[in-house]
Amino acid sequence: MTNRQLAAQQTPRRTPRRTPRRLVAAAGLLCLAVTAGTVGATTASAADAAARGARGTLVSATSLDSFDASQATAYVQGIGFATPAEPDGVEVYQVTYRTVTPTGRPTTASGVVALPRTTGSGPLATVEYTHGTMAYRGDAPSVADGPDRAAAVMFAGDGFAAVAPDYLGLGTGPGTHPYLDVRSETTASLDLLTAARALEARQGRSADGRVLVTGFSEGGAAAMSVGQALQGGALPGYRLTALAPVSGPYDLRGSELPAALNGQLLGSHASFYAADLVVAWNRLHPLYSSPAEAFQAPYDSTITALFDGEHTDEQIAAALPDSLQQLFTPGFLHRLQHPTGAFAEMFQRADSVCRWAPSAPVRLYDADGDQDVAPADTTACQGELAAAGVKVPVVDAGATDHNGSAIASYPLIRTWFDTLAGR
Which pTM was predicted? Predict the structure, then answer.
């Protein structure tokens, strides 16, 4: 999500160069400018330094924003979320913390931790929000003052501790982003919860162990994986309390790729997602020895550099064609549809996020008018959960587009989380 380009929340039309991806607010609503400069900072303690290399170690925490209740309300509603007034003020921090790469090597990542100002009210339940697709590192929640950060402010203003990872290779983290690699999305998300615990202690707060997980688009699939890890005891002291993913690509091979190829999805958006996935996965496990094996000219000569984290989504979209058939060579397009070996294993891993049995309450959210992530993805996820013995409702945001599904869903999720938290 970013506040650099804002899209109206209307039923989508097939305009070939509308920039895709993440949750964005209506153009006329972002009239409240909030300064995101550093107003104070804390650095790692001697104990943290001694634990250098440990996953979840808090390296630094820098204040991004400080809102009283009325300012938090204006900020969240100004972004486009139709929520009630925030009862609490909010302190927002950019944190840097230690985590691991997809191969398990030590690295750092950044993210947002937002805490309610109210003190003396006991330990806090935590909401973890995982963001949607972005290729530009400057759009990450801890860097961009936009809707992703506003989602964290919304939950913190409602009395939750809120965390929003940037993921690897976005925000201030080194390297490139391993797109739709659910393993690293999960480790980065869990390690941020650990880092948040240290920051909360410095601020005289504590978490009560309950984690309500939600995420949008790419973050919808990540949220399902984070939930499974929490239920499995991956992070001692924390337990999964609820899951509310929105419009996630849970079924790439069975739903998303067919919809992209048959014209159900916006062609330019489908090209963006597919190019991002193939370039990112090629970095994890070589899928081609030369870009020309996978991408048609002239895209073969530019595609790798476009996804370096320094190009904006608008720049990338303008440099891509309007269909997968124009983007990929015929041979590689066949491989996409019929992957084998390591390629098939990567799809299997990405498409397994709903193949488990949550014991916590789950609601899936999507929109009939979504032309970025096929609604069939949500149907497939619901079916896989049912096969595991868990009946899950789907909350339909209506005939709105991909971004609109999040704008419409998050006020509903906030209300549901309030109920589950006993508010």
Answer: 0.89
What pLDDT, on the 0 to 100 scale, is given for residue 422? 87
Model pLDDT, residue 89: 96
Segments of the chain with pLDDT less than 70? 1-53, 119-120
Does domain 252-349 fall into CATH 1.10.260.160?
Answer: yes
d(CA 24, CA 89): 23
User: What pLDDT is recorded for position 43?
Assistant: 41
CATH T-level fold of 41-248+356-420: Rossmann fold (3.40.50)
Report d(CA 267, CA 14) in Å as an integer: 8
Check residue 283 and give its pLDDT. 97
What pLDDT sits at residue 118?
82
Q: Where are the domains of the chain?
A: 41-248+356-420, 252-349
**What's the CA gap between 245 and 236, in Å, rounded?**
23
